[in-house]
Design goal:
The chain is α/β, with parallel strands linked by helices. It has two domains: 113 residues, no CATH class; 287 residues, Rossmann fold. Helices cover 45% and strands 15% of the residues. The N terminus is likely disordered.
C-alpha cells in the first residue's frame, strides 16, 4: 500500500521540481479549504483551529481531526483520488472522538458533484490515473483480482458478516425501522427476492454467477432447483462446498471454480448478485452475451448490482480510484442505463427494477460495527493495524455513498426481448 509523501518526479531539474511541488501542495491546501468551506463538518488542525468556517449558529457538528496536515496535503497533491483514503490508513487524519467516520464522510459524498467549481472539475483529466491494464477484466488477470479480495480469509469475513455469510446488500422491510430488523433475516429475504425475480422453483435448472459462500445456491436447492454455481475464488468455493454438504444438498448443487465465460449448456434461470461490478467495462459485452447464450427461451435473469447515476458513471469510468487500488482490483460500478444498453445489444430487456440503496447503508453500518468489535479476533488471524484502518475506511466510505444516494443498489430482472414484444 502506497504511503508516499515525497515529491513526484516531474521530469524537471530538481530545483524547478521542488518549486512546482511546493506550489502544488499549497494549491491543494487551498482547494481542500474551499471544498470544506460549506460542508457541515468541522476540520480541526493540530492547534485546535479550524481549516474551514465554524458553524454559523454554534451547533455541534461532526469533526475531522487533521493530525498531520502537511502529510495529508502532500498525499492529496500527489494522488487526488486515492490520497484521502491513504492518508486515513496512514493516520494523517481521523474522525474526532464522538464523531462517526461515516458521519464525517457523508456530507462530502452528498456534495461530491459541486464541492469544487466547474472549471476545476474540468481539469480532473490532468490528475486522473488510468485504469491499470491488469484491472480491465481480461481472462488472464481476473482470478488474481478476485483472489486479492475474496481469498483474504474466510475466517476474516465470517468475523463481521452475519451467520448466512452473505457479502452483499441485505433487503429489509420498509414498513419498520431498519435498525430494528435482524440482518440474517434481511439477507435471506434478499436472496429469495432474487430467486423470485428469476422464477426459481422446484425443477428449475439455475446458473449462479458468483457463488459467494453458497447461501443463494443452498436456498435455491431448498426450493428444489438444480444449481450450477461458478466462482473464481478458491477459498469461497471450498467453504461453499462444505456448507452445501452440511445442508445435505450436494445432489442438487455443483460448485465450479470457473470463469463465467466458460459456462456451457443452457439454464431456465440465471442469478448473479453483485458480481457485474468485478467484470470490467471492456468485458460487459461478453458478460451480457454469456447471459443471453446460456438462458433458455422463456427464462429470466436476476442481477443485483451496485449502480450510480449515468452521469457519474460516465465521469468516473476511465479513472482509477482508492477502491480499485486497495479493495476491489478491476472493479467498476455501472449505471442502470449502461446495464439496459448492454442487455439490449444481446436481445435482453429490463422488465423490472427494485432499488434499495438505503438498505445497503444499514448493511454496511452493521458490518463496520461488527468488524471493529471483532477486530482482536481478525488481527490475531494475521492482519495488522494498516489493514484495520483500510477496511474501516472502505466500509464507512461505502456507507456514506449509499446513505446519500451517490450509490444505489438494485435487483434487475432481465428477459429475452421477444417476450416483452409478444
Amino acid at each position: 500500500m502506497s504511503t508516499s509523501t515525497t515529491a513526484p518526479r516531474l521530469g524537471l531539474p530538481s530545483t524547478a521540481t521542488s518549486r512546482l511541488w511546493s506550489l502544488r501542495v499549497r494549491a491543494t491546501r487551498q482547494i481542500v479549504k474551499r471544498a470544506a468551506r460549506d460542508v457541515p463538518v468541522d476540520v480541526a488542525l493540530p492547534d485546535g483551529s479550524l481549516l474551514n468556517r465554524p458553524s454559523p449558529d454554534g451547533e455541534t457538528r461532526p469533526r475531522i481531526d487533521l493530525h498531520r496536515p502537511e502529510s495529508f496535503f502532500r498525499r492529496l497533491a500527489e494522488q487526488p483520488k486515492v490520497g484521502v483514503g491513504e492518508a486515513y490508513t496512514a493516520g494523517d487524519w481521523s474522525a474526532a472522538d464522538g464523531s462517526d467516520l461515516a458521519d464525517v464522510l457523508a456530507p462530502y459524498a452528498a456534495r461530491l458533484t459541486n464541492l469544487l467549481p466547474a472549471w476545476l472539475l474540468r481539469l480532473r483529466r490532468l490528475v486522473d490515473q488510468p485504469i491499470p491494464a491488469d484491472q480491465e477484466g481480461a481472462r488472464e488477470h481476473t482470478q488474481a483480482n478476485v483472489a486479492a479480495h475474496y481469498d483474504l480469509s474466510n475466517e476474516m469475513f465470517a468475523a463481521f458478516l452475519d451467520e448466512s455469510l452473505t457479502y452483499s446488500s441485505a433487503l429489509f422491510y420498509d414498513d419498520r425501522p431498519l435498525a430494528d430488523q435482524d440482518l440474517t433475516t434481511a439477507q435471506l429475504r434478499k436472496v429469495n427476492a432474487a430467486l423470485d425475480e428469476a422464477g426459481v422453483g422446484s425443477g428449475t435448472e439455475l446458473l449462479e454467477i458468483g457463488t459467494g459462500w453458497g447461501t443463494l445456491a443452498i436456498e435455491a436447492a431448498r426450493r428444489g432447483a438444480r444449481v450450477t454455481t461458478v466462482t473464481l475464488s478458491v477459498e469461497q468455493a471450498a467453504l461453499a462446498r462444505r456448507r452445501i454438504e452440511d445442508a445435505g444438498l450436494t445432489h442438487l448443487v455443483t460448485v465450479l471454480v470457473q470463469d463465467y465465460r466458460d459456462v456451457t449448456g443452457q439454464f431456465d434461470a440465471v442469478v448473479s448478485i453483485e458480481m457485474i461490478e468485478a467484470v470490467g467495462e471492456r468485458y460487459w459485452p461478453e458478460f451480457f452475451a454469456t447471459l443471453s447464450r446460456v438462458l433458455r427461451p422463456g427464462g429470466a435473469i436476476a442481477l443485483q448490482a451496485i449502480v450510480m447515476s449515468h452521469e457519474r458513471y460516465l465521469t468516473t469510468r476511465r479513472s482509477y480510484g482508492w477502491i480499485q487500488k486497495h479493495i476491489f482490483p478491476g472493479g467498476l460500478i455501472p449505471s442502470l442505463d449502461a446495464i439496459a444498453s448492454h442487455a439490449d445489444a444481446v436481445g435482453l430487456t429490463v422488465e423490472h427494477t427494485h432499488h434499495f440503496g438505503r438498505h445497503y447503508a444499514e448493511t454496511l453500518r452493521r458490518w463496520r460495527a461488527t468488524f471493529l468489535e471483532n477486530w482482536p479476533m481478525i488481527r490475531a488471524a494475521r492482519f495488522g493495524e494498516e489493514f484495520r484502518r483500510t477496511w474501516e475506511f472502505y466500509l464507512a466510505y461505502c456507507e456514506a455513498g449509499f446513505r446519500t444516494g451517490y450509490l444505489d443498489v438494485a435487483q434487475v430482472r432481465l428477459v429475452p426481448t421477444t417476450r416483452t414484444a409478444a
